[in-house]
Amino acid sequence: DAMVIQNPRYQVTQFGKPVTLSCSQTLNHNVMYWYQQKSSQAPKLLFHYYDKDFNNEADTPDNFQSRRPNTSFCFLDIRSPGLGDAAMYLCATSTSRGQGEQYFGPGTRLTVT
Amino acid sequence: GESVGLHLPTLSVQEGDNSIINCAYSNSASDYFIWYKQESGKGPQFIIDIRSNMDKRQGQRVTVLLNKTVKHLSLQIAATQPGDSAVYFCAENNQGGKLIFGQGTELSVKP
């Protein structure tokens, strides 16, 4: 089945130690998104790619970076994780920007020790 | 560490009853709306969507109503089941390619 896959599902990292979260999709969608979701809160958009075009949200900290080497894969890099970066990180895809649903992966739960 | 979690609005219903979850959206220019269901530890799952040229759309056991005059969206779940227990988010697409999520409502179904 076509889907959005996130690895790992659970990630533990140390304060200040760089970490990379992965997302892949078999849907061949043009747009890929990264969201941060903290406990009992709505998902918060960090950035998205429309094909190779990167779109950063104005309030996304510089500590968060992303790479999209090809259509199928997108990575979230946290350069120096702080305790406040502990959250669920959700990847999503859509066929186009502006219309249509976004398909979400299962998320990666990040713990910072 | 992580900020203290907010308390989500909670709706508690008896199994078999109908549920109505409400949502107010912010942008009168938004033209597409989605309801997502999120179970604990999982990603949001699409339930139903509606475009702004409609005021009602029905799916299997779910109905979405859109009132553009007051910028209000509701999700009705018929014959609620224990498996419906989750957090429900409405989201508006603001024509900028972004989904703006509402606060979320936690639905609890009592057997």
Q: What does this molecule look like?
A:
- The complex is a heterodimer of chains A (113) and B (111).
- Chain A has no helices and eleven strands.
- Chain A is mostly beta strands.
- In chain A, the strands form two sheets. In chain A, strands 2, 4, 5, 6, 9, 10 and 11 form a seven-stranded mixed beta sheet that branches.
- Chain A starts with a strand and ends with a strand.
- The mean pLDDT of chain A is 94.
- With 111 residues, chain B is mainly beta.
- Chain B is 0% helix and 51% strand.
- Chain B is built from no helices and ten strands.
- In chain B, the strands form two sheets. In chain B, strands 1, 3, 4, 8, 9 and 10 form a six-stranded mixed beta sheet that branches. In chain B, strands 2-7-6-5 form a four-stranded antiparallel beta sheet, with no helix packed on it.
- In chain B, a hairpin with a 3-residue loop joins strand 5 and strand 6.
- Residues 1-5 of chain B have low confidence and may be disordered.
- Chains A and B meet through strand 5, strand 9 and strand 10 of A and strand 3 and strand 4 of B.
Keyphrases for this structure?
heterodimer, A: 113 residues, mainly beta, 11 strands, 51% strand, B: 111 residues, six-stranded mixed sheet, 10 strands
Helices and strands, with pairings:
The complex is a heterodimer of chains A (113) and B (111).
Chain A: E1 4-7, E2 10-13, E3 19-25, E4 31-37, E5 44-50, E6 53-56, E7 64-67, E8 73-78, E9 87-94, E10 103-104, E11 108-112
Parallel strand pairs in A: 2-11
Antiparallel strand pairs in A: 1-3, 3-8, 4-5, 4-9, 5-6, 7-8, 9-10, 9-11
Chain B: E1 10-14, E2 19-24, E3 32-38, E4 45-51, E5 56-58, E6 62-67, E7 72-77, E8 86-93, E9 99-101, E10 105-110
Parallel strand pairs in B: 1-10
Antiparallel strand pairs in B: 2-7, 3-4, 3-8, 5-6, 6-7, 8-9, 8-10
